[in-house]
Amino acid sequence: MAQPAAATRTPFALLAGPAMAGDAVAALMRRMGLQPEVCGADALPLRLALGPLTATLDRAAAALLDFADPADRATSSLGIGLLGDWRTKGGCWVVELGGADGAADAPSPPLVDYLKLLVLLIDAFDAAQIFWSPARLWTGAPQFRGAIAEMQASGMPPVLHLVAFRRRDDAGGERVGTRGLAAFAGQELEAPVPPGWDMAAMVKRLARLALDMMLNGAVARAQQAPGLERGETVALTPQPASGARPATVLVEFSADR
Question: Are the C-beta atoms of 133 and 105 separated by less than 8 Å?
Answer without folding.
Answer: no
